[in-house]
């Protein structure tokens, strides 16, 4: 019973992290669509990032105290870190939107944010399947995340082309270029989560 409880702690906290990530992505998308109170949104996403750090700490603590783990130790560590990276990216980007005082809705930022939210939906589903030990079913979600990341790559190229073709304000170009790059990086982090899950499938 104690061993089962130790095993449950990892899967329970993977799910908590993923759902926390999904909530952050919802706020992130709302922020980008409205751009009316970027400071408050940044603060709220920071609170979720702090909560995510607590979940991460719990997993690492359990890892240090557990001799037999339900997955390879390296896989638990990698998945935990990669999930945390996604939320860190959203927090950093939200801070930047506030620092730069971005208050004009931008179609590319909106599209990036929606893709991020879609990825977190897939991550939640995949992690729940991991907890249920339905490993083959995870692949449809990792494949979808990979497709979304490719979509984001194309969106990033297009956003830069339009940015340089249609804007003359150097300050705005620099700011938007950095924000686009940061948003694309969040999607790269989502792909890293998918790759970590694929690694677990292959080694199980």
TrEMBL record:
InterPro entries membership: PhoU-like_sf, Put_Phosphate_transp_reg, UPF0111_domain
Top-level taxon: Bacteria
Family of this protein: Belongs to the UPF0111 family.
Protein name in the entry: DUF47 domain-containing protein
The species this protein was found in: Desulfofundulus thermosubterraneus DSM 16057
């Amino acid at each position: 019973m104690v061993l089962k409880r130790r095993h449950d702690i990892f899967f329970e906290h993977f799910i908590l992290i993923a759902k926390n990530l999904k909530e952050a992505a919802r706020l992130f998308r709302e922020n980008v669509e409205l751009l009316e109170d970027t400071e408050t949104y940044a603060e709220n996403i920071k609170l979720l990032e702090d909560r995510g750090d607590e979940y991460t700490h719990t997993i690492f603590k359990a890892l240090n105290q557990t001799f037999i783990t339900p997955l390879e130790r390296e896989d638990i560590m990698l998945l935990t870190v990669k999930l945390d990276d996604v939320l860190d990216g959203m927090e950093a980007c939200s801070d930047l939107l506030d620092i730069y005082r971005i208050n004009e809705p931008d179609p590319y930022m909106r599209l990036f944010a929606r893709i991020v939210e879609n990825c977190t939906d897939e991550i939640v589903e995949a992690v729940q399947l991991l907890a249920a030990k339905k490993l083959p079913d995870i692949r449809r979600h990792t494949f979808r995340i990979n497709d979304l990341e490719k979509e984001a790559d194309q969106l990033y190229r297009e956003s830069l082309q339009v940015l340089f073709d249609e804007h003359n304000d150097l300050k705005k170009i620099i700011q938007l270029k950095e924000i686009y790059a940061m948003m694309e990086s969040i999607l790269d982090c989502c792909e890293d989560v998918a790759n970590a899950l694929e690694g677990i499938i292959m080694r199980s």
